[in-house]
Each structure stands twice: as C-alpha cells, then as structure tokens.
Write a structure and sequence with these properties.
372 residues, alpha+beta, four-stranded antiparallel β-sheet, five-stranded antiparallel β-sheet
C-alpha cells in the first residue's frame, strides 16, 4: 500500500477515515514479499483524532453480528460469522474442541486376549471410537459415584478365530451394547456362597437402558461399524467389556465431539486495473484454485474477473512476478470468519455450535457476576 504524507491528506469530516486508512482498519493485506504482514491496528484509540471509535461496543456488535449457514450435512457444517472479533471466533473453536461433553470408553475389562495386540493398545483404540449417543442424556461420573444407567454405557466384545479359518478382522460392528449393564461378576463375588441373591457385577443398573424412551427407538452403537480394532489369527480370541462415561476434550482428546473445528478470514480478491487478453489468460492459469475467470466484453476482447473469491487460499501466486501487485490485491476481511465444524457423530454440527454458544454465555454471566 503506498504511503501518504499527513500533510497531503484531504480535509475530511469528523467520523470518517481516508480510504487507505479505512482499508487498513478493516482489511488484512497479503503482499507477495511479506506473507506474515498484517497491518493490524485494532486498539480503540487508533483513530480518535478523526472522531472514529475503533473500540468494541455492545450496541454496534448487536447490529453487525450475524451467522450465515453455507453448508450443513449430518457430519459437517460451514457457516460465516460476521461482525465479530478474532478472540470470539477462537473462543468458539476452543469450546467446541475442549469443553463440549461427549461419551467415550474409559474403562476396559479384559477377560481374555490372546491376539497380538497388547491390552493397553486395544483399550486405547476402543477409547477413540465415536459413540452415537446424545451426551446430554447422561450425568458426569466422579470417582465416588457408582456406575449406573444414568452415567455409564456398557459394551461387550467377544470374538474368536477358529483354528483352520482364515485371519479374522475385528471391527466396531462386533461391539454390542448391554442395556442391562455389566455381565462380568465382581472379582470378590462368589455366586456359590448365596445362590438366592443376584450376583453383583461391575455396574449397578436399576433398570434397562433400552426401556427408557430416548433409547427405545434408537439403540446405542458406535457411529461407524467398519473401524478396525484388531486382527485375529487361527485360535486367537478377545473377550472384554468396555464402559463409556461422559467427559470433555480438556480431559482427554477422546471426549472431543469434533474431529476438527477451524476458521479463516474471508478472502477478498480485487482487480486494481483491467486485466485483458493475454494477461487475463495468464492470470487464470496462475491461480491453482480457479478464483479467476475470463469474460468477453467487446469484439473479440477478453478480460479477467474474480469469479470465486471465497475459494482463494491466499497462496499469492496471482501477485508473484513483475507488476502483478499493481493489478491484483489480496486481502482478508478482519471481522468476517468462515467457520467449519466436523462432528465425530454424537451430535449434529449445528447442535454442537448451539451448545458452544450456551457455554460461552454461561462464562460471560459468571464473569459479570464476579465483577458485580
């Protein structure tokens, strides 16, 4: 961006910035020779002499902030968050990754494992399996709590490769939900001592989970049935129980409800001058993601247009080379974020974002309470 002397600035009314300062205030410029250059002036008193308030005000935030959903599927979501500060966008990202609860396998009781995969490795793989169940229906379990139908899910896995058969691939479809709780007897329990009493297991369910209305129509199971857990050779066997509890990603990544949550500023590609004929074709070829297109505007003459600015990855290929920075400008809009959420499957991505908003709201209320 060319530098302008303060003595050459035109007289402007209070509350209005010159065009080059307005660009500097609202855009991040990406130069070919300075990929990390940001021109970032955010503090509130930066333009006070010109009567422009660059601070954060609640009424202005309420006017400008909006969310526009671009794509929504069962597992991922792309939406625009407009009119916010980068700190708020990053707060949503961190909440989605680390503070939204989900259900994951925490305890694995192995009765028999003669496969080549070690017990601890098998338990770790089981913990990373995404379980399709709403965590809001369950309670957190502390060290002093007893596993029951409100805080624990139990799965059983029992597979065996018979001698003479080919190698057996064990996948998540072999994990079977036990709605009545654990079937393994406690190590201290001796059923022969009191045959009239019900033998004690590792859980204390008072009712079957599939009798509850929220689970009667949709049995609990892993999100994907084709995740490989182990491979068994002839004569090898695995028998175990896996107990899932509620947790958050801050404790362990297996409780994170998203495979990824990320954002980027909206790219803005501007043609500073007409790019025609051979130069237009050269510009189209320079871009690896087809941001530019060619249109006919006169008798056989062609010019370049910015057809897909959102697809720009800020690789700066279009401004490399002699004089191309005079023809094309690449910027990022400071208060416009393209946000992407990829769910692991427990909850849809739009529900995850709604829950993240609630958590951020609770945090703000706690701060206000402490300050008052």
């Amino acid at each position: 961006m060319p530098r302008v002397s303060a003595l050459d600035l035109p007289d402007l009314p209070k509350g209005q910035l010159p065009p080059h300062l307005e660009l500097q205030r609202t855009r991040v410029h990406c130069a070919a020779d300075a990929p990390t250059h940001t021109d970032n002036i955010q503090y509130s008193g930066a333009y006070a002499m010109m009567g422009v308030d660059n601070g954060s005000r609640l009424d202005e935030f309420c006017k400008k902030f909006r969310v526009e959903v671009i794509r929504l599927t069962e597992d991922d979501m792309e939406f625009d968050m407009i009119g916010i500060d980068p700190a708020i966008a990053n707060a949503f990202r961190r909440i989605l990754i680390a503070e939204l609860p989900t259900m994951a396998i925490e305890k694995v009781l192995i009765a028999n494992n003669t496969s080549i995969i070690q017990d601890e490795v098998l338990a770790h793989r089981l913990g990373l399996i995404p379980i399709k169940v709403d965590p809001r229906l369950f309670e957190y379990m502390s060290e002093n709590d007893t596993p029951n139908e409100k805080n624990t899910l139990v799965f059983k896995l029992h597979v065996k490769c018979k001698k003479g058969d080919p190698r057996l691939t064990v996948k998540t479809d072999t994990l079977k939900w036990l709605p009545n709780g654990s079937e393994f007897l406690l190590a201290s329990e001796n059923p022969a001592s009191n045959p009239a009493s019900k033998p004690k297991t590792y859980t204390s369910f008072t009712c079957s989970q599939d009798s509850l209305p929220e689970f009667s129509d949709q049995p609990i199971a892993p999100k994907h049935n084709d995740i490989i857990l182990a491979k068994l050779g002839p004569g090898q066997e695995i028998e175990l129980e896996a107990h899932a509890v509620k947790g958050i990603g801050k404790t362990h990544a297996k409780w994170s409800p998203v495979s990824t949550a990320w954002y980027r500023m909206l790219p803005e590609v501007v043609l500073l001058q007409e790019v025609e004929d051979e130069k237009a074709e050269e510009l189209v070829k320079k871009c690896p993601v087809n941001v530019f297109d060619i249109e006919d505007f006169a008798k056989g003459k062609k010019r370049a247009t910015v057809a897909r600015p959102r697809a720009c990855t800020l690789c700066r290929e279009c401004i490399r080379g002699e004089d191309w920075e005079k023809r094309v400008a690449i910027r990022r809009v400071k208060d416009h974020f393209i946000f992407t959420i990829e769910s692991t499957g427990a909850l849809p991505p739009d529900v995850l974002f709604t829950e993240a908003v609630k958590i951020l709201e609770d945090k703000c209320e706690r701060v206000i309470t402490e300050l008052s």
